[in-house]
Amino acid sequence: MELQVQHALNWIEKTNEKIQTNKDYLSALDRAIGDGDHGLNMARGFQEAVGKTTSSSYTSVSDIFKDVAMTLMSKVGGASGPLYGTAFLKMSMAVKGEDSVSHERFTKGVEEAINGIIQRGKAKEGDKTLLDVWTPVLRMLQEQSDFEADSLENTAKSAMESTKDVMAIKGRAAYLKERSIGHLDPGSVSSYYLFASLAEVLKE
Ligand code: ADP
Ligand code: MG
Ligand code: MG
């Protein structure tokens, strides 16, 4: 299958729903090892993103991702805004030129998104950041030749859960050193919502 304009619109809306529902939870996670604003940051950003995408009309997935990127970059303070913004901008560029997006193109987009996140934040997999979800998701996508909703959901979920046992090397949580162990990484939880939402959209 291909990711169509309507899939991409639904993806952003569903992600926003999960983030709004879990806004307090995300902030509580960030209160434990950061500054307590991750839920607020993401809720503001995705609410604005949905405001933009639902009031515009699109002929390509790329343009949707671009609007999401611009909105997240301009409306979200904190580390997560520029990082998610960069991710969507890189995905937008990678899928440009076609109305809908093949599995192969999407996989390339996720790879470019990760490169952008690394370029900006200088983290690597295992540093207890959202890369700990994005990177296993990329590996899973690369192993498959078509979208597989269940493995996407499962991979993102177990990757998110695995951030609990890890010591933070990057982001605010890194200040806590060993004391960051035993807590989930907030950005990995919001990234899990992102990919779980995509999995749900793929099943519709
Ligand atoms: P801030 O830390 O500025 O308050 P948020 O609370 O919104 O921003 O986002 C924190 C999340 O951002 C972390 O949980 C982590 O997943 C992610 N993050 C922080 N720094 C980096 C980085 N250098 N590279 C990748 N992800 C990062
Ligand atoms: Mg924070
Ligand atoms: Mg902050």
TrEMBL record:
Keyword Transferase: yes
Pfam family, one: Dak2
Catalytic reaction equation(s): dihydroxyacetone + phosphoenolpyruvate = dihydroxyacetone phosphate + pyruvate
SUBUNIT field: Homodimer. The dihydroxyacetone kinase complex is composed of a homodimer of DhaM, a homodimer of DhaK and the subunit DhaL.
Name under which the protein is recorded: phosphoenolpyruvate--glycerone phosphotransferase
InterPro entries, per the entry: DhaK_L_YcgS, DhaL_dom, DhaL_dom_sf, Dihydroxyacetone_Kinase
Source species: Salirhabdus euzebyi
Keywords, ordered alphabetically: Glycerol metabolism, Kinase, Transferase
GO molecular function, one term: phosphoenolpyruvate-glycerone phosphotransferase activity
Annotated Gene Ontology cellular component terms: cytosol
Gene3D superfamilies, per database record: 1.25.40.340
DhaL domain mapped to chain residues: 6-200
